[in-house]
Amino acid sequence: MNILNCRVDDRLVHGCVATMWVPKLHVERVLCIDDESADNPMLKNALRMATPNGVFLSVLTHEKAVENLKADRYQNQAVMIVAKSPKTFLTLVDNGIPVPSLTLGNLGNIDKTADSVVISRYITVNDEEAAVLEQLHEKGVRLEAKLQPADDAIADFYQVMKDKRKS
């Protein structure tokens, strides 16, 4: 399996993913893991329209994504996995799917809660997300915050998040 990037992005596939990440990484398949989108033909069509020509798109439920990844269904393709929540990637790791690093693009700005803390312009983390990111960190997943491929990543995102959530 050739997973080039795992990305948390509230909007799944949109301009930044389609015009910057996919070409930069030479992605052949974007795998969106989102139960709501997988079960909604209108959302699936919107994601298809946002995906560049020549790039395959799979919009799957969490269960189907784990099944397909475990079966190595995309074995010879360069894959980018995108989900709305870090919880999705914890599910993958807990099911034996390797996630060496996780790029945090857009997170938490759409559905802010009372316990949300702004970490960067594009990332707001609530208590539940912080707990999941801590579990990922403890399982050896490198966390980076990066909106665009050319951006400098927030060095040691986990520590920055911990520090900002304390203040």
What does this structure look like?
The chain is 39% helix and 25% strand. It contains 7 helices and 8 strands; from the N terminus they run E-H-E-H-H-E-H-E-H-E-E-E-H-E-H. The strands form 2 sheets. It has a 6-stranded parallel β-sheet, with helices on both faces. A two-stranded antiparallel ribbon has the order 6-7. Helix 5 (86-94) packs parallel to helix 6 (127-138). It is globular.
Key features of this structure:
8 strands, 167 residues, two-stranded antiparallel ribbon, PTS mannose/fructose/sorbose transporter subunit IIB, alpha/beta, 7 helices, Fructose Permease
Q: What pattern of helices and strands is seen along the backbone?
A: EHEHHEHEHEEEHEH
Helix content: 25-40%
The parts where pLDDT drops under 50 for at least 5 residues are none
The number of strands is 8
Number of domains: 1
Shape: globular
CATH superfamily: Phosphotransferase system, sorbose subfamily IIB component
User: What portion of the residues fall into strands of 2 or more residues?
Assistant: 15-25%
Give the strand order, joined by hyphens, for the main sheet: 3-2-4-1-5-8
CATH topology: Fructose Permease
Main pleated sheet: 6 strands, parallel
Average residue pLDDT: 93
Protein name: PTS mannose/fructose/sorbose transporter subunit IIB
Keywords: Cytoplasm, Kinase, Phosphotransferase system, Sugar transport, Transferase, Transport
Pfam families: PTSIIB_sorb
InterPro entries: PTS_IIB_sorbose-sp, PTS_IIB_sorbose-sp_sf
